[in-house]
Amino acid sequence: MSTHLEDLIRQSFNGALPAADRQMLRDLLQQTDNEVLENVLSGIWMEYEGSIPAKTDIDELISGLPIRRNGRVTAIFGRAAKIAASILLLLALGAGLFYYYAGSKKWGLVAASTITIESRNGGATNVKLPDSSLVILRSGATFDYPASFSAGKREVKLNRGEAYFEITKNQQAPFLVTTDWLTIEVLGTTFNVKAYDRSDSVETALVEGAVRITTKGRKPETIVLQPNEKAVYNKTNGKLSISKADMESEIAWMQDTLLFKSTKFSDVIKKLGQKYNTVIKIEGNRYNNDTFTGTLEGENIEVVLSALQLHYHFSYRRSGSMITIQVK
Amino acid sequence: MDDYKIHVTGLRSGSYKDFKALYDLFSDNLYGFVFRLTRSEEMAKDITQETFIKIWLHREKADPDQSFKSFLFKIARNGVIDAMRKQWRNPVFEDYLEHCDAMYTNGEDITQKLDFDYFLRRLQTAKDKLTPRQREIFELRKEQGLSPAQISQRLGINEQTTYNILSAAMQILRKEIGPGGLMLFLLFFD
């Protein structure tokens, strides 16, 4: 009985207890004494590495106690506050993004209606899906989506790599992201998925909203994530567990990416110069009135410029810390 | 592995700084654990606070050679078990979970704000829109768990009337609770 109870409690803990089993859990809880419950909960607790910001001011509570404290008091809210800010920043950036930068990407039609995008080195790729949802693929990612979603379902596939999703609400059509190992059903809005081939795990970090993750395979496991948690699927032992997401590092790659929306060519170059700490001069005025919409990401300026060269015709030469762009 | 062992040693000797380091390492983890079990921000917050206050008060009992994580559990467990039992005893808790399912299915935004406490407050406000009779019957059914037959017997009305009043009450509550609450009251007729 206690293994059945444990099963039900685990499912409930994971946010995935089927409605039909709730009555059963309620009844079992009434019949179970504390000792048994303690063992079950202790097991779940020792495995659980997730977290939700507690937002409590422990300093104030402790200082209210009639006990002298030693040591220095440091602000505890620094970290939580920063995470919230980075989420906001992300959303703010996300709102301005609308187009993909096709120049550096390989496009192909796999089936009649499936579009495959491979985000190659040198830049993140923005994809606007048929339902206006936004996907940002990190360089190296490949991603399939249909040219139009069929009624009642929105399904996309991350084949490889890492992607950030902002999903448009649609009550009639659930949004599913599949990977080779698990399926993520989007219940809310914003999250990040890592599915690298070389890595032995698949990670989903939730920024905002809620996602339900189900593993593939014979004995599927399900977890509903809360914001700031991440689900880690271990490809080797098939276990799905919850751990804490450090949102800042999870989506840092998003912030290393330069985002442009209808930006003048000269301003794009200026921005690159600032980011990579290089003086860049433009020779030739052919692109003076051109605007650029898209994202650029790269370890160094050469990588980014070669991505930009797929879109614009120019050559460049470096002399010392200065780069001269020659528009053809 | 136990890089926090040094903090436990510090805590034992009364260092608030080490206490804070442990708090930073484990409080969000404990909060998340309790929230997942109870779906209540208030309970999660209370238990997290109480646990750490107890740890500070009984800091000499912390043992650097034992897992701090299981020490935390020993201090928190009674509160956690009571809280979890309390939630599941509440007949509306299952309706709340049902409500969450409905929200998920409808693709609504779910945040931690949609916890059980918030749900109960919304239900309470919605109940103000009921007539006294509707409210009485609704509460007998849902909060005291009487069957429609038992309600009819107690109030001396026929069962059909009980059904009709319940059904009218539910329509009002459904409207008040709004989208996402549509499936909420399905459970009310067993």
Automatic annotation (TrEMBL), chain A:
TM segment ranges: 83-102
Alphabetical list of Gene3D superfamilies matching this protein: 2.60.120.1440, 3.55.50.30
Domain Protein FecR C-terminal: 258-325
Domain annotation FecR protein: ranges: 116-212
Domain of life: Bacteria
Pfam families, per database record: FecR (PF04773), FecR_C (PF16344)
Keywords: Membrane, Transmembrane, Transmembrane helix
Protein name, UniProt field: FecR domain-containing protein
Species of the source: Chitinophaga qingshengii
UniProtKB/TrEMBL annotation, chain B:
Residue intervals of the RNA polymerase sigma factor 70 region 4 type domain: 121-171
InterPro entries: RNA_pol_sigma-70-like (IPR039425), RNA_pol_sigma-70_dom (IPR014284), RNA_pol_sigma70_r2 (IPR007627), RNA_pol_sigma70_r4_t2 (IPR013249), RNA_pol_sigma_r2 (IPR013325), RNA_pol_sigma_r3/r4-like (IPR013324), WH-like_DNA-bd_sf (IPR036388)
Keyword Transcription attached: yes
Keywords from the named record: Sigma factor, Transcription, Transcription regulation
Record carries keyword NAD: no
A Pfam match: Sigma70_r4_2
Name under which the protein is recorded: Sigma-70 family RNA polymerase sigma factor
NCBIfam families tied to this protein: sigma70-ECF (TIGR02937)
Domain RNA polymerase sigma-70 region: 22-89
CDD domains: Sigma70_r4
Family designation: Belongs to the sigma-70 factor family. ECF subfamily.
Transmembrane segments: none
Taxonomic source organism: Chitinophaga qingshengii
